[in-house]
């Protein structure tokens, strides 16, 4: 790429967020006063950094030599034959170091933290992918890392807990509430309030108070910059549809962003349908949520009539979250990004189908996008092209997927 | 004048700071928390802060988090909160300040929430996750329903922000200091004095200070520099310790507030 992926262009997609951090009606800075000054400082520091050629080239270099970019655009021929419809391409974010797209953002924020003179890093993690990426990059930069993780997720993702500790991070279990990602975010924010002078909070998704949704999006924008160029090279045209899973929505916004101003490309975010759209059984915010404010921004939330946040369920820890990134909320209302969901059962089917047809074991999070994308591909004629963002690899999920499918693994 | 202004004027006339108590509504249950609030009023609290339990109280420390969890598990609802407020308002004329989160107000509409809270006896709102930048709609709703809007100033807040906060705030400024809670009394006073003096350069509003103040000596030390001393965790812990026998909670909290507020009595 000749120009940096961090520089905003003149197209409409770059106009959001506005200076108040709003994506239309969504986003903003709904945080305690203690965090306002650090967040405003972070916004200024990021704005300076993104325009600094030294920062840009360091970011690009680490994406290349440490994360392993560019990732491939893979035509899944065997799968395409099996589905009998549109061509299926996979953007191979699963091939990145530490196993998922998460590392793009972590490298960017760690560089920023170092530039700001912060010596301690905190992060939340759900599936453990963001925590693992944070632990790795902090080890590389010599930064102290403290990772907050819900205790239920620590059980589901024991392997990732060990990986984080192996790389020198401290993993702190969070026992409040339903002991998953939402509680880990609360605890990380409390830590930040207390230790803000020497600590940077590497938020792991395109969520929270401004500037996080914008900054995290920018660090993942590289996904669609690459895929667009690769698709033009492979097919001589743009895909008909791009599909990505949506928890907070970082891999989705990164893989959609460069297509937002291309009206011929349909964009679909796939949420976690869990055991079905019933209270507490899923994490499909656009299917069962209402607008509200949680953990820093205004967006769609799963909540009760009183505004209390509802419990969620998903087979994948990374999508098991009650709120969605504010940029997605905006493009949902604007009709630019469509949203659907895949249930746990559909997800596990897709997880197995990709494993068998292509020898690629996908993350359970990404398997939601696969479930939707496979169905779409089967419906579409052979001259259409569906691009699915394979956001992470499934090594971490083998244990819980086996359990969900009733297979007992003995070690 | 409103109840809050009256209270600070009266305390000033008595030559002392105001004692501001915090407990969570519905902890351990609605009726008991109303009794606790009335016991606080009788025991010497001048302003009653009422925490509204939220499922995700990210601005609160562990003590208040657990209180909110107990309250929600105890069945606390919006209607339950209004009942608590009505009962307390019927028994005392002391100011009631709600300590809440934006989503709880937004869920039923900012206007409707403010109207209902005002009608139940509330005097002011402190919305923990709503800085002045996001407060436009909320301030309009508060103004329409004559609720005062209290804002927090933190040690990280620079002078220019203090001025911006002072411009929209009413009632009092809540200064949340985290430094030197357990330090020497003289250090504590020196740190605080500087922070409070900075706030006073920007506003004539009274300044209340809170940060886990738990002993009469700390109450007295903070009272020397601030217009109000906020005590929360120390009272919530008493509620928690009595949750097996809620009937005794109000009495125990009343005793605690008498012990702590004694630090504020006018000295010769």
Q: Helicity range of the residues of chain A? A: 40-55%
Largest interface: A-B, 34 and 38 residues
Strand content of chain A: 15-25%
What does the oligomeric state look like here?
A: heterodimer
Which stretches of chain B of 5+ consecutive residues score pLDDT under 50? 179-185
- Please, how many helices of chain B? 12
Question: DSSP strand (E) fraction of chain B?
Answer: 5-15%
Number of E strands of chain B: 8
Measured on Cα atoms, how large is the radius of gyration of chain A? 19 Å
CATH C-level label of the largest domain in chain A? Alpha Beta
Structural class of chain A: alpha/beta
CATH architecture of the largest domain in chain A: 3-Layer(aba) Sandwich
Count of DSSP H/I helices of chain A: 16
CATH architecture of chain B: Alpha-Beta Barrel
The topology string of helices and strands of chain A comes to: EEHHEHEHEHEHHEHEHHEHEHEEHEHHEH
* Number of DSSP-assigned strands of chain A: 14
Numbering strands along the chain, what is their spatial order in the largest sheet of chain A?
A: 3-4-14-9-10-13
Share of helix of chain B, binned: 40-55%
Summary, kept brief:
Chain A has 16 helices and 14 strands.
């Amino acid at each position: 790429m000749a120009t940096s992926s961090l520089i905003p262009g003149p197209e409409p997609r770059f106009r959001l967020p506005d200076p108040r951090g709003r994506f239309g009606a969504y986003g903003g800075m709904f945080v305690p006063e203690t965090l306002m000054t650090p967040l405003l400082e972070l916004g200024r520091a990021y704005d300076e950094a993104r325009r600094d050629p030294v920062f840009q080239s360091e970011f690009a270099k680490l994406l290349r030599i440490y994360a392993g970019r560019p990732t491939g655009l893979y035509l899944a021929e065997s799968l395409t034959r099996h589905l009998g419809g549109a061509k299926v391409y996979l953007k191979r974010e699963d091939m990145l170091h530490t196993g998922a797209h998460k590392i793009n953002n972590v490298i960017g924020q760690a560089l920023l933290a170092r530039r700001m003179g912060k010596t301690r890093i905190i992060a939340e993690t759900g599936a453990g992918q963001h925590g693992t990426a944070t632990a790795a990059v902090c080890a590389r930069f010599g930064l102290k890392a403290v990772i907050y993780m819900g205790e239920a997720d620590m059980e589901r993702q024991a392997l990732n807990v060990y990986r984080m500790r192996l790389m020198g991070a401290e993993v702190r279990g969070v026992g409040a509430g339903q002991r998953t990602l939402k509680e880990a975010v609360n605890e990380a924010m409390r830590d930040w309030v207390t230790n803000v002078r020497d600590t940077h909070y590497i938020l792991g998704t395109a969520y929270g108070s401004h500037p996080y949704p914008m900054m995290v999006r920018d660090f993942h924008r590289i996904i669609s910059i690459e895929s667009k160029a690769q698709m033009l090279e492979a097919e001589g045209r743009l895909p008909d549809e791009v599909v990505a899973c949506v928890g907070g929505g970082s891999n989705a916004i990164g893989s959609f962003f460069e297509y937002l101003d291309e009206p011929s490309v349909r964009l679909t975010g796939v949420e976690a349908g869990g055991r079905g759209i019933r209270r507490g059984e899923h994490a499909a915010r656009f299917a069962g949520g209402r607008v509200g404010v949680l953990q820093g921004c205004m967006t769609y939330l799963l909540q009760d009539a009183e505004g209390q946040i509802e419990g969620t369920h998903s087979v994948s820890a990374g999508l098991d979250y009650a709120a969605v990134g504010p940029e997605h909320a905006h493009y949902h209302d604007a009709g630019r990004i469509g949203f659907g969901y895949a249930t746990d059962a559909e997800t596990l089917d897709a997880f197995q189908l990709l494993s068998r047809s292509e020898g690629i074991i996908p993350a359970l999070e990404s398997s939601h996008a696969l479930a939707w994308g496979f169905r779409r591909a089967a419906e579409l004629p052979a001259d259409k092209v569906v691009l699915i963002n394979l956001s992470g690899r499934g090594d971490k999920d083998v244990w819980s997927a086996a359990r969900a499918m009733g297979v007992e693994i003995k070690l | 004048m409103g109840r809050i202004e009256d209270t600070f004027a009266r305390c000033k006339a008595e030559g002392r700071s105001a004692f501001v108590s915090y407990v969570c509504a519905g902890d351990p249950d609605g009726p008991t928390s109303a009794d606790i609030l009335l016991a606080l009023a009788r025991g010497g609290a001048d302003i009653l802060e009422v925490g509204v339990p939220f499922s995700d109280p990210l601005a609160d420390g562990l003590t208040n988090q657990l209180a909110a969890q107990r309250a929600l598990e105890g069945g606390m609802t919006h209607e339950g909160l209004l009942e608590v407020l009505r009962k307390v308002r019927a028994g005392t004329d002391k100011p009631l300040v709600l300590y809440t989160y934006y989503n709880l107000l937004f869920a039923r509409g900012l206007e409707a929430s403010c109207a209902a809270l005002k009608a139940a006896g509330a005097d002011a709102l402190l919305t923990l996750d709503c800085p002045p930048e996001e407060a436009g709609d909320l301030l309009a709703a508060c103004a329409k329903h004559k609720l005062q809007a209290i804002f927090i100033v933190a040690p990280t807040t620079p002078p220019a922000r203090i001025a911006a906060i002072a411009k929209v705030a009413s009632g009092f400024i809540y200064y949340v200091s985290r430094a030197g809670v357990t330090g020497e009394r003289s250090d504590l006073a020196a740190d605080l004095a500087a922070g409070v003096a900075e706030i006073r350069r920007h506003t004539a509003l009274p300044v209340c200070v809170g940060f886990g103040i738990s002993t009469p000596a700390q109450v007295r030390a903070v009272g020397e520099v601030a217009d109000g001393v906020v005590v929360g965790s120390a009272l919530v812990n008493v509620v928690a310790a009595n949750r097996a026998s809620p009937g005794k909670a109000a009495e125990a909290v009343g005793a605690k507030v008498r012990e702590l507020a004694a630090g504020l009595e006018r000295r010769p």
